[in-house]
Amino acid sequence: MKQDKTTLDHVSMQRAMRICIIDGMFANASENMIGPFLALFALALGATKGQVGLLAALPALISNSLQIPSARLTERWGDRKRLVVITSIISRLMIIGIIAVPLVLKGDLAIYTFIALVSLRGLFASIGVPGWTSIMADITPRDSRGSYFASRNMLCNIAALCGTLLAGWLVRVYEFPAGYQASFLLALGLGFAASYVYSSLPIPPMPRRSVTRSQPVGLRSWWKTISRYTVFRNYCLTSMLWNFGVNVMGSLFPVYYRQDLGGDPGFWGVVTATGLIATLIGQRYWGRLADRYGQKSVMLIGGIGAASVPFFWWFVPRWELAPVAQFLGSFCWGGYNLAAFNLILEITPDVGRTTFVGVYNTMAGLASSLGPLVGGYLADIYGLRAAMILSGVLRWLGYFAFRSRVPSSSTEKMRWSDLVPFRLELRLSQRLRELTRRNSDLSG
Known about the structure:
Blueprint: H1 10-31, H2 38-45, H3 49-65, H4 67-77, H5 80-104, H6 107-127, H7 129-139, H8 145-174, H9 178-198, H10 219-226, H11 230-250, H12 253-260, H13 268-293, H14 295-307, H15 309-314, H16 322-347, H17 353-382, H18 384-405, H19 422-443
Helix pairs in contact: 1-8, 1-9, 3-6, 3-17, 4-17, 5-6, 5-7, 5-9, 7-17, 8-9, 8-13, 11-17, 11-18, 13-14, 13-16, 14-16, 14-18, 17-18
């Protein structure tokens, strides 16, 4: 039987999946040595809450507005892997400028230059997202994606945990700016290692569209064409509400920790690491449920905790207890994010997947970029707790919109008892049978 040119053989697919795990470990270690500390870096430069909101909003706005052009660029170029590698290297080079900011600039000029460099970093990284997503769909078997990404995410989170703890230690020992600069420099090296590993990835040729001359141009035309896919359209719309609500407060939790709770900047690495541990614990747990009951079921269960994150933080009385809120939220977010990524792969067609991913990222990303602006504005005027309340309410509205508007592809319904881990469930069942048997013997 002739091998399909648009798919990999079994050996190549297994090799590609292994390479993606190694690449992901380097990339996650790199990102977690810089990403969680950007808001604290901005505060150390003298940024206000509104400027911290801009730090989250502007990179998201710029990068996500280019998702559809990025998808079209990927389809026209054809070499998805090369595009991902080139843009990832350019993105990581921006870290050099970020490191130099406190050495050569002061005041608002330093803050806005820092925001601009972070935005450029996000812009170049986002160009490769549609191609990267379509590659991941092509190299992973549909029936085992939940388990694979659970295993991959588990190993990536171990690497991220190590990176976060090391970065937190550097910030605590060497303070600002030396501790941040050392952490960011190590992140740069690990990022380059990730790009090198990814460059060896075997991938199949990208499926070609049957129509090339009459493709629609522009967001409105793309949306008109793609909205015929009802499930995809509804998922985009509900994700806009959800992402807006999440990002109203998402970038401000480090500020709340530092200013309202009086937390130690170095200890923020421990808080972030706690979230990674929670995600790590949950990966295989959520992956098993996703493969059996479908992505929507896992998103609904995990979404309960993800929607409640602002309220978890609301009840934290002291900064030393911040890891508790982070653990609860991150465990639930681990399941939600795992299933959300798999759901996108499920509801987008093989042909033109980069465009569908680009449209989704644009719609959800534009909402995400507006959230920090609103949150920062509210925080400056009314305080961070006002942003917390709004974020929590909007998250729950997005949750219920997703629950009612996006159908599940799985016919097997999840019950609350299914959330009990398999081995524990088996032990409980055995214990129940023993008790039942004993009661029967006594009654007899």
